[in-house]
Each structure stands twice: as C-alpha cells, then as structure tokens.
Amino acid sequence: MQKLEIDQTKSTPFVNLNPDTGLLEIGGESYPENSKEFFDPVLEWIEQFLSSEDTEVTLRVTLSYMNTSSTKYIIEILDRLEQANEKGRPVTIEWYCDGDNDRELDTVEELKEDFSMPFEVKIREA
User: Fold this and answer.
1) Which of 35, 48, 59, 105 could form a disulfide with 69 if both were Cys (CB 3.0 to 4.6 A apart)?
2) pTM of this prediction?
3) What are 16-31's pLDDT values in tens digits?
4) CATH of 4-123 given 1.10.287, 3.30.750, 3.40.50, 3.40.120
C-alpha cells in the first residue's frame, strides 16, 4: 500500500498517511471549497489501510482551524478509527491545540468525549 501525501494549501490541510508506520497526520487549516472532494480520497485510503494492514495506528492532528464541513469529515475519520479500535486494533489520537485558543480546546475536548479510544489533547508549541 502506498503512502498518501497531500500538500497544504491556503484552504486545505496537509495530509501524510503512512501505512508502514501507521502514522496518519493532518494539519494546517481546513476550509476547502469542496470538502467531499478533498476528504473522500483520505477516507478511502484509511478504509483500505484499516482493512488490509494490522499496524498500530496513530492519528496526529494539528489543525488550527476547520470549518463545519471539514469537522464532519474529521469525525468520520475518527468514527472509522474507533470502529477499528473496538475490533482490537491499537489506535491512538494525538490532537495538538493552541493553548491560548479556548474555542479550539473546547471543540477538541467535546470531540474527545464522543470516543472511547485513547485520545490525547496536547498543547502545541508556539
């Protein structure tokens, strides 16, 4: 299985999905004009990875901003990882937040409450 790498743009995050290490990274800002078009390949890759590999998975998120439609897709990614975790796949979420942004911290803490897999909220270095 090949890596999936998408470069960051002004309105889309970078994506680095590595099947060899199980590290899935998404970061930057996410407010694409067409969230479906951007996130569908990411979801497809994750589905294929989860069904064909047994590597431990770490999702590392460093999103400083995401719009409502991006949030929907991030939740979809988290749902898929949660399902894999419930089936015995080791999954860890590492979500890095700006310690000075209470809104971002509140949003991520609310997301964390919806999932039972290991979910660490960390403060991003300035």
Assistant:
1) 35
2) 0.93
3) 999 999 999 999 999 9
4) 3.30.750
